[in-house]
Amino acid sequence: MAILEVYRDPSTMEPLLPENIGDLEPMSTQLLEKSHALSASLHPETAKAISTFLRPMNSYYSNLIEGHDTHPIDIEKALKKDFSKDHKNRSLQKEALAHIAVSADLFNKPMNNGFNTYSAKFIKNLHKAFYEKLPKEFQVAINIEGVETPIIPGEFRKCEVQVGKHIAPSWEYLDGFLARYESYYDPNSLSNKSKIRRIIAIASAHHRLAWIHPFSDGNGRVVRLLSDACFLTEGMNTSGLWSMTRGLSRNDASYKTHLSNADLTRWDNYDGRGNLSNKMLKKFCEFYLETAIDQVEYMKKMLDLDAMLKRIHYYTDLMVSKGILKTETRYILEAVFLKGEIPKKEVERVTGKSDKTAKILAESLLNLGLLNVDKTNHLSPYKVNYPISASPLLFPGLYPTGKEMDMMAMLR
User: Fold this and answer.
1) pTM here?
2) What is the DSSP letter of 352?
3) Nearest C-alpha neighbor of 98 from the set 63, 71, 54
4) Which part of the chain is CATH 1.10.10.10?
5) What span, in angstroms and rounded, lies between the C-alpha atoms of 21 and 211?
6) Phi and psi at residue 140, in whole multiples of 5°?
7) Strand ranges, E, within 162-217
8) How far from chain centre, in Å, is Cα 243?
9) What would the pLDDT profile of 356-369 be if each residue is shown by its tens digit?
10) 25-47: per-residue pLDDT in tens?
């Protein structure tokens, strides 16, 4: 590869934020307000259960963007340590579990109080945490010469990379690019005092890290995990109730087109002052913020109280017709959705049944994964829980229609 074809100067990734960001501020403000309203709409225990329920979906969509289609049913089986005998499917299951584990770790670690999610160290740690959990066959990449090379978890690439028409910066100069990236987007810097500016920066930084392409493989997953971490740092989506990745995957063609267009150099003297196109970066940020708002609004619709209770009724009616549940279980599901958890004795009250019958009703829901309880403590309350297999009825549209039809067919 000729040396002039490879970027070596960090200034070549300018602009790092669209010029005249005022046009993007209304969307950024809207996303902030809607996200906070969504997080405040549920009992904390219910929000926690739904966040846990959504992580496998995030994993499904993030891996799907990379061309790895792992069926949600297989992901649910993997969570129960039920792995496929087929080697390829088993590897995909383990890949899904790796993403779920890294995502869960992000939500369990506070990342405010001066933490810089854009640091090269944090980005490396995300890659390391994900790749060290992958099967060995996923820890290799094909370099630009077509040679298979091992991927070292958490280590920047040591080869040149071309993605489509985009030739990423030279690997020998990656430290300089990442240093510029880290300092420019640092949420603690004086130039980033505005929260609205920082939200727009999440969108812009999403593309610029993909453009740098610091790893020989896994950049897409790392970039999307980083976006999750950045929203958390801003105190947004701390309950994990909406998924950026779902929106990007369901608009996969537009997502990849906008990413590719933002790789382009500026068209003319009216297209900003940097090396790359200001117009295309702005369009990417618009797409990104619109997608985020759409996902928040989708989950708001899903979690609307009346709508959720109707779906709980429909679910229990269907399961009653199949002889799997009793009608009274709907009252238990309603109670745990509203309160997050209920004492065991309250099952008697909400169902109007005896202690013995109440225990049988609760046990039927435990068997379906619709309740959770600490079996080592007889005083432990019943907590809300949602299995992947129930998503087509309780949270329709989370997964593609074909996948949901498969899950519906498995209801017995």
Assistant:
1) 0.94
2) T
3) 63
4) 305-409
5) 20
6) -135, 155
7) 162-163, 166-167
8) 5
9) 999 999 999 999 99
10) 999 999 999 999 998 889 999 99
